[in-house]
Design goal:
mainly alpha, globular
Length: 408
Amino acid sequence: MPKSWFIISLLNFFVAALMGVLLRLAAIVPVNWNYLFLLHGHSHTALLGWIYQMLYLLLLNNFLPKTKRTSPYYSRLFWVTQIAVFGMMVSFPIQGYALYSIIFSTIHIFCSYFFCYKIWKDLSEKRSYDKILLKIALLFLLLSTFGVWSLGITGTKNAPFYQAAIQFFLHFQFNGWFIFAVLALFVNQYRNFFHTINPHKFHYWVSLLIVGTVFTYGLSLSWYFPHPLWLWVNDIGILFQLIAIGSGILYFLKRSIPSDRKTPLTIRFLLLSGFISLWLKILIQLTTFWPEIATASHYIRNFTIGFIHLIMLGIINSFLFFFAMRIQSFSFLKNRISQIGLYLFLIGFITTEILLFVQGFYFYIGKGAISYYNVSLFIASLLLPTGLFLVLIGTLFFRKKHKTNRLY
């Protein structure tokens, strides 16, 4: 598991961020590329080329002993997965959903199946809270792919069942696989602390999270199959998530684990960013108790993009960098250049989120577009690839001085 895996994954993220900037540029000047095709390339590269591969790397590093994680199986699987990501990175902007992009997407799905099977098999038989959360995450990963397979039988792209199938995949990727994998890594990092929790309380907490995750898919169903029942289901799911996430965060912060003064400021800042974003996610979901806002969350695109980025960049990404920086062999992330890059990235994320949600609110109350909104959003978006570029420079510079370093 060489550091080249991290560098490749970070390069994927950098390319995805550049695609995002081009998407923002399209709102300012005429462009020659297909916006929707590039959007598909951007989302697939970010989700599968960065988040999936970083989780792949971190889960192996934290859950498997060296003898198992250094197996040639995982190395070959990583590179096959990267080939699939590169194929999607190129094919989606050129042709959208067509022959080659579908082939590479399918290859990636099968790679995820092989990963789930192998890591589940290689986990030690000793039960622990972090392994329970990891197995739930893997099950959600498998479940999410059912949405992809069902696309062939759901009709045209504008059909309600087709759109619901896409939302099924996205919902259980973001709220199931990604969130539970992050929770598994978090509990793993603080294993000794969390294992003092009463097993009954832990299983009750996990049950609330699972039910909340499943039920909140009701919001997506309400967009395509309007009926009060789906909003009620969503409301129940939100309450369950609020109880579980709220009590979990308070329980953790009450014991002041992350306040250790020896913890570098950048790491604490990433942890704070992840926790605040998680709280904001729940609070935003609470607003969908009002049917008008539940409908607006779908039709006002600024809200949709802002919420997706809140989960991906605010929660998932902050914790991914947090976990990576806590790995001793990842000390290359602690050099000054990389840290400046991380701060620029976070500033860009915060600024773009504010612009997206404020503009969405203006549309919601009927005030129209904010002056120079698209230009401001484009400029703020430039901080994202700029920050990632500095992280890459810091990583490569450190790597030249420490060529023999490994994740293990």
